[in-house]
Design goal:
Elements: E1 6-12, H1 16-25, E2 29-35, H2 61-70, H3 74-80, E3 85-87, E4 92-96, E5 99-100, E6 109-111, H4 115-127, E7 132-135, E8 138-145, E9 152-159, E10 167-170, E11 173-176, H5 184-190, E12 198-213, E13 224-227, E14 235-241, E15 247-253, H6 263-271, H7 276-282, E16 286-287, E17 292-302, E18 314-316, E19 322-323, H8 331-346, H9 354-376, H10 388-404, H11 408-418, H12 430-442, H13 455-461
Parallel strand pairs: 1-2, 1-11, 2-7, 4-13, 11-18
Antiparallel strand pairs: 3-6, 4-5, 8-9, 9-10, 12-15, 12-16, 12-17, 13-14, 14-15, 17-19
Helix pairs in contact: 1-4, 1-8, 2-8, 6-7, 8-9, 10-11, 10-12
């Protein structure tokens, strides 16, 4: 247990990153106040302030490990509540380039809870911390700081339901976890600091989700069926068992090829996927809700780590720093790892240095960002610089996936990286590379499954914009 280093820490934003941050802060501050615009306590449904909660959100293998480090025993609690857990390489049925990968249990456990249920269980743990307070239905107006802007001293908030004006919540540390819509870059400029640089890649993803109760079983011994979008067919899906005996389907399209939200159009879109068993299951299933669509235009990384100066006692975490491509389900896991990094710094007995912490956050983000940005650039319509290294990685990745259709050890190696357990450099180990090349030499790469859709989809995949 860390010794208390200061009086009050304020967390702006009560979503999953805010909860992780509060858990990291609680041992080191006498009081932790978590501020959010929504009602949070006891909520087990999707929230208006977090529309992405209606869609599949996942904790990857390393994220699950971090979750258990932050909240020991929470895995069993969620399992007792009916949350299934899958093995990323063993009980997830992956399709790459239209072909199914071999499977093997590799100890890569993933949480298959719906986002509201995951938040509910994490929130209950945070609520149980005696020094944590929730300020619900409050808008964050801005920061308060010393006259010279060198130190943040609190947050300015407005309580929606009390008819009062703006008030200042004094703090010894303020942590922004308000997500992609964070106004931290604007606040820093107002305090006299430089503009935060941003890196973006336009991917123009649209994903639509629905929950079902099945009348037939397409899973067998698997927990999830995931056909991955490819340049030939820029459509994919995650179809998974989840809490409450339901299944959750999120299907997506890249570069403007978005799924329709009417039932017939949605089902026709699903029918084009590389895993025909998904469509066969849902046409006979009982829908439990309406189809919800979410659009994601660009990935984004705000480079707080590149600032030459920053105010003391102010940190930024989670989607407020980086929103990677949601298809790869990295965001929650990165947030959990950032919370562990924050906790480790606090255990040294003093408040984190803002620039040093943001640089550590960047070091957590960088491998995942570089890996997924490289994958995104494999789609010809995605704009960006394709270095020789990027092009070679595209060739090697295709060979690796092809090898994984024949040998499960390649699946396990790839999923350890995709699950953030191993760094991307692990795929360059000589033994693995030689194994992939040997497999490729013995058998040339097979073509992916033929398109299961109209020819226009193929034209979009080669970079044309939909009309």
């Amino acid at each position: 247990m860390s010794s208390v280093i200061a009086g009050r820490a304020v967390v702006l934003g009560g979503s999953i990153t805010g909860l992780f941050a509060a858990a990291a802060l609680a041992p080191s501050y006498r009081e932790v106040v978590l501020v959010d615009r929504d009602r949070l306590i006891g909520v087990r449904e999707w929230r208006r302030g977090a529309p992405q909660t209606r869609h599949i959100n996942g904790l990857l293998a390393r994220g699950h490990q971090a979750l258990e480090e932050l909240f020991p025993g929470i895995t069993q609690e969620m399992a007792d509540d009916g949350v299934p857990f899958s093995d990323l390489a063993g009980t997830v049925r992956w399709y790459f380039h239209g072909r199914r990968l071999k499977q093997v249990r590799a100890g890569l456990s993933c949480v298959a809870a719906t986002r509201p249920v995951l938040e509910y269980h994490v929130r209950r743990r945070v609520e149980a911390m005696p020094n944590v307070t929730f300020l619900e239905e409050c808008d964050v107006v801005g920061l308060s700081a010393t006259p010279d802007g060198s130190r943040v001293t609190g947050a300015r908030i407005h309580r929606r339901n009390e008819g009062t004006g703006e008030e200042t919540l004094d703090a010894d540390l303020v942590v922004d976890t308000t997500g992609r819509g964070s106004r931290s870059p604007k606040w820093l400029v107002e305090l006299g600091y430089q503009q935060v640089d941003e890196q973006r890649t336009k991917v123009d993803i649209g994903y639509a989700s629905r929950h079902y109760r099945l009348r037939s079983d397409p899973f067998g011994d698997d927990h999830s069926i995931n056909p991955v979008a490819s340049p030939v067919l820029p459509r994919g899906a995650i179809f998974t068992k989840t809490d409450g005996g339901r299944v959750e389907l999120t299907t997506y399209g890249i570069l403007g090829d978005h799924p329709p939200t009417d039932e017939a159009g949605f089902n026709d879109f699903v029918k084009t996927l590389a895993a025909p068993e998904i469509h066969e299951a849902i046409v006979d299933a009982e829908p439990l809700d309406d189809i919800a669509l979410f659009r994601f235009p660009t990935t984004m990384w705000r480079r707080f780590d590149l600032l030459t100066a920053a105010p003391d006692r102010f940190l930024v975490m989670g989607d407020a720093v980086c929103t990677p491509n949601p298809v790869y389900a990295q965001a929650q896991s990165l947030s959990a790892l950032e919370a562990l990094a924050l906790r480790a710094r606090l255990r040294r007995g003093f408040a984190p240095d803002p620039l040093a912490f943001q640089q550590e956050v960047a070091a957590i983000i960088r491998p995942a960002w570089e890996m997924t940005t490289s994958v995104d650039l494999g789609f010809p319509g995605v704009e960006g610089r394709r270095t020789l290294a990027t092009r070679l990685m595209h060739v090697f990745s295709r060979r690796l996936h092809d090898a994984a259709t024949r040998d499960a050890r390649f699946t396990a190696a790839f999923m350890r990286v995709a699950g953030l357990v191993d760094p991307p450099a692990a795929l360059m180990r000589p033994g693995l590379v030689l194994g992939v090349l040997r497999t490729a030499w013995r058998t040339p790469p097979r073509q992916g499954a033929p398109l299961r859709t109209a020819p226009s989809v193929g034209r979009r995949a080669r970079g044309r914009r939909p009309r």
